[in-house]
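<instruction>
Derive structure tokens from the sequence

<record> Sequence and structure tokens follow
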Amino acid sequence: METKLPSASARPSVDRVRMIRRSIRCFAFGLVGAVPLFGLGTAFLALRLHRELARESGVPVRATGLDASTVIAFALLIALCYFNQAGLVLAAGFLISGLEGYLLLLQYRRIELSDWNPARNLAWWGAGLAYTGLNLSVTIIVLGIWSAIHKD
């Protein structure tokens, strides 16, 4: 029994100019979102735009590795704060951001293009910068809570 793939004409048409503009907007939001604490709102906007662009272009976005590393990151940061290791909390925040960037890069390389979008890499950079800003914001918040609790 043969499995038939849907033809390119069976997919809904995508407004390419709109897709390029949204990719550039995703990068701009991610760039502002990379600033810890200040860019939290734009980081969430960049991630939402990235998911919408992926849905429009038919590209699967699997955030399972990113979600798992985020959960592990929160647990590690809380454990390090429990053992009074503020320097390691900061280092772990940077390392976790690097790990999530690497996982995002692996996902970017594995995806086959279904639609033409020359600004596709900008959307992925925007998502990576947004994840970095979110991780560093969480690190700063955890360090702030830790310093408030251990005020001697």
